[in-house]
Amino acid sequence: MDKIKAILENIKLKNLDKALHQCNEYEGDSNKNNHLISNFRGVIYFLKKDLNLAEINFIKSHKIDSKFEDPIKNLFLIYLNKKNLNKALEFSEKLYEINNKNDLYSYQLAYINELIGDNISALDFYKKCIELEGKNKLKALNNIGSLYLKNNKPKISLEYFTKAFQINSRDKIIVNNLLLNYINLRNKKKSEELFLLSEKIDSEYIEFLLNKAEYFILKENYVDAIQILLQHKDKTKFLITLIGLYFKMGKDNEASSLLDDSRDKLKNDKNFYNYLGIRYLYEGNFEHGWKYYEYRGSKLTNILKDIKEWNGEKIDNKNIVVFNEQGLGDTIQFSKYLLSLSKISNEVSFVVPKNILNLFNHNLEKIRIETIDTIINKTYDYKITLGSLLKFFYKDKFKINENLLMKDKINISKWNKKLDITKPKIGIVWSGSFLGPNEPFRSVPLKSLDKVLSLDLNFYSLQNEIWDRDEEYFAKTSMNKLGEYDLVEIASIIENLDLVISADTSILHLSCCLNKETWGIFNIYPDWRWAEFNKINPYPSLKMFKQKKFNQWDEVTDEIFRELQLKFNLAQ
Question: What is the mean pLDDT of each run of 10 residues along the chain (572 residues)?
Fold first, then answer.
């Protein structure tokens, strides 16, 4: 063992040639320590930056003793360096099989799954790492938070970042992630606290500078935000944020120029594929759009993860389950494409949230309406998310009443008797969910509708969530307040209205799918669904009112005011 210790000592002292010579002298066919010598030789070549010879020797060591952990650990690092992620995954799995109580092995397995894009497995192994209460718990908490935040789940990510912060409140990575989380939650008070702390820890940290720009955007200080982003636009995250801000502000020329110059760069980084997908869809380049849209964060779900995803195979005798991983508006808008799917499959199961289960027709041929609870223990040949289903059927045309919604005649009649018929009945929705996509830009401050609400009409508020900025004004209005009802009930109410006016929310989609005359209010840069996609399959009952100047709604509300006067013959 003295010779083994001598080799190890020379490796530590970086006497690599001497250590290599000792390895060559010591190794022999009958030597029981050959697995150690081959591993040492691999370490020497690794330190010499000869990854190929290092790999050969680590593999040799592993073949001699498959339970010896050191060469497996080293092969994991080799393949990580070579960016051979599948081989890195293979050896991280071997380590976990040998010792699943080692928190490092759980962490490495989670990390490599995250790099590969299997976020579900990554979350599972990060959580196992946390349970082991080892040295890697802090990193695992942070990485789980980052995964959820990246995939638009800021309420969940906050739990993990907060736990990490409680362990180390001076770690600049964790502090900045927590800051970004509060910015995403649009919590100005907590954002300011974390901003000041992060600035104190390291004001030149690159992630802090990006967060600083996001913080200024939150505070509507767009000039300073743009200045920071321009200074660092050579870095992709800053560039994407700048392009997005330019588009939201209606600065299309600046945004398009930057985007066109950087598309090839973005195609080399999977972290920005979803952004590329959404932009391509907005532009009407659907071939590229659907391809990159598959990287959207909302596909992070555990639902039926063991069932094969449908990719267009022949399924005339197969059963397929479709579930929506996005918002209620998407569930309503895109559900009609299941009619197309049902024509080429044996049976389609559509998984929807419980609160809108009865919004859909349960007597459709070959389509079953399900919830997560009702599909347990059922078998399916294929699965697909509703967002991914679009790429196969988005060009299909539908008749005006062709959809999956159910009309409850008894409930519709009940509301017909309840609503005041002495004046035209107008349903109104001015804001979406506070944490919804494209907020706060897509929502209208209620006070901006003051002129509209002054008209001698019956206005019915159909929204459940009232933002803080609107509460005082909302309490003073004479609107009939029906927002406490669920969407199933709201559907029956809409059937009895003369018109619905709505921002880009689920109620807008519900009203349009019910073929009720609907006036949609849209900000200057709305969601991709309202660009070229809308021209292919528009809502026949929808009239669009689009903002012309960033953050200014007066022109839109004035136009709606005039249109209401004309429609209902109100004195001018």
Answer: 87 94 79 89 95 96 94 95 94 96 97 89 96 97 95 93 98 98 97 98 98 97 98 95 96 95 90 92 96 80 79 95 89 96 96 94 95 90 94 94 92 94 96 89 96 96 95 93 94 97 97 97 96 94 96 96 95 66
How far apart are the C-alpha atoms of 564 and 559, rounded to whole Å?
Answer: 9
- Between CA 328 and CA 465 the distance in angstroms is 15
In DSSP terms, which residues pair with 427 in a beta bridge?
460, 500
CA distance linking residue 381 with residue 368, whole number of Å: 15
Helix 34-47 and helix 16-26: axis angle, to 10°?
160
- Would you put residue 301 in left (φ > 0), alpha (ψ -120 to 50) or beta? beta
Q: Are 368 and 347 in contact (CB under 8 A)?
A: yes
The rounded distance, in Å, linking the Cα atoms of 435 and 432 is: 8
User: Could you identify the residue written with the tokens 């840069």?
Assistant: 525
Give the other-Cβ count within 10 Å of 426's Cβ. Answer: 24
Contact between 58 and 45 (Cβ < 8 Å): no
Residue with tokens 């409680």: 166
Cα distances (angstroms) measured from residue 448 to each of 115, 443, 551: 46, 11, 11
Q: Where in 182-227 does DSSP place strands (E)?
A: none
Per DSSP bridges, beta strands 345-351 and 367-370 are: parallel
The Cα-based distances of 165 to 126, 138, 158, 204 in angstroms read 17, 9, 10, 20
36 and 4 in contact (C-beta within 8 Å)? yes
pTM, two decimal places: 0.88
Parallel/antiparallel/unpaired status of strands 499-503 and 480-481: unpaired
Cα gap 494→487, rounded to integer Å: 10
Cα-trace Rg, the chain: 29
For the record, the structure tokens of 458 come out as 């019956």
Cα separation, 384 vs 151, whole angstroms:
18
pLDDT at position 301? 61
Distance between CA 127 and CA 109 in Å, rounded? Answer: 11
Q: Tell me whether the omega of the peptide bond preceding residue 538 falls within 30 degrees of 0, making it cis.
A: no
Alpha helix (H) ranges present in 419-453? 450-453
Q: Which residues of 221-241 are buried (b: 16+ CB within 10 A; e: fewer)?
A: ebeebbebbeebbeebbbbbb
